[in-house]
Amino acid sequence: MTMTDTGERPRAGVREAIEQGRTALGIELGSTRIKAVLIGPDHAAIATGAHDWENQFVDRVWTYSLDAVWSGLQACFTALAAQVRERYGVELRTVGVLGVSAMMHGYLAFDGDGELLTPFRTWRNTNTGAASEQLSELFGHNVPHRWSIAHLYQAILDGEEHIGRLAHLTTLAGYVHWKLTGRQVLGVGDASGMFPIDVSTGGYDARMLARFDELVAGRGVPLKLADLLPAVLPAGEPAGTLTAGGAALLDPSGTLQPGAALCPPEGDAGTGMVATNSVARRTGNVSAGTSIFAMIVLDGPLSRMHPEVDLVTTPAGDLVAMVHCNNGASELNSWAGLFAEFAAALGVRADNNTIFETLFRSALAGAPDGGGLMAFNYLSGEPITKLHEGRPLFLREPGSTLDLATFMRTQLYSALATLRIGMDVLQKAESVQLDRMFAHGGLFKTAGVAQNLLAAAINTPVSVGDLAAEGGAWGIAILAAFLTERNGRTLDEFLTQSVFADARLDTAAPDPADVAGFEAFMRRYRAALPIEQAAVEHS
Length: 539
Description:
17 helices, 6-stranded mixed β-sheet, xylose metabolism, kinase activity, FGGY_N, Nucleotidyltransferase, domain 5
């Protein structure tokens, strides 16, 4: 079964499912787009809605305003409801179940009256280096810059005034869920990006909680971290119902009625795992958008702590090695915009899909090793390569050939290079084995290009297919459906048996010439990192 709506299903049956509430609604707040997907009993999309938004760099902090959160959610839901009305001639008055997902990590801090204490600090911020280093040493567990606990401790180190009034911490998904239901909870996958999880208990690590409380007490900050963090729930557990106030926040027109059950809110990494059926051990997926990251479900713990690897969990609570790179496809988007502008200046009009496909396909003819060209896609800092800020760079060796094909291959290689550094830790230092690797996100929309280059970068077959066509918003809708369709099954069993049984996949094996070419590119990339560092220091 294809996971997207083909327009071929009988409209009367879909209309009946909508009217009877036999639907699941998934909403995901991504870095550049808020998206909603409504699915029916067969798990295929009935309708979608979307709203584009962008973060702001304010006072050297990447942020989104809470007003933008709600105006964006309302625009997204309005577009979804309009599509339901147009396609099926019915108002979207109710949904059976609902789920909220959003970009992981970051820092949303509230006082006892529910007032935001400081602007939302997103995952993209890398100003928490001191906190990250100290907490990683204290816990013996890698604490990345973007984790909520790193933001909290950095605020304590910096003596920020708001710490004395702090009553509640959460993520963006947790915040939206709280406002829709009144409950301060998180799915375990999203929670694992706030504070380390003990996979044996499914909750926050008690030993590390105690160590943190002792640490901050020594700095004169008497707080109990467990009281600040949201409660943790695994996939399949009920997490509240949509209140009248929550329904009005999503749909100010008053058409949407309260009462829908909500699943635990999750992070975009977890919904990506669901959307690619990658929650079983020895499976993994790569998601590429504004950031790029790999999620590998482990057989067991790693031998030691690695600063390039985060330990998080699946939405079911299984241990995951996460390689997260702050910089993904944004620089590619900028170059595509430049080429589109040039084409328009010549009087050539082409839509974005055509422009991207043309540029991406040209990369297949590029020199396998990048032909003496080099690029860094760092719009923001990149902890894996120890850069607190970024400067996008393109450079080339004297005598290199500057042609479109090799230029585009170099840009695509650049988008994958930092991921490769982290994957080397897992595949080489830890000998982690993978049975399946899936890829999803905008980078992989042009068939057989980024997919093939990723296969070369990690020397592993990479699959793409219809299973992730609607992305994380569809993934959280599936997690919502799991609430009522679980029937005693694990999440892996539910996905394999009920959601992906007939999914189609296209798998690309690594090409030996591309594998060798990417290896050569990476040697030059590592050697050129001091150039990127110098650009940060001197511009």
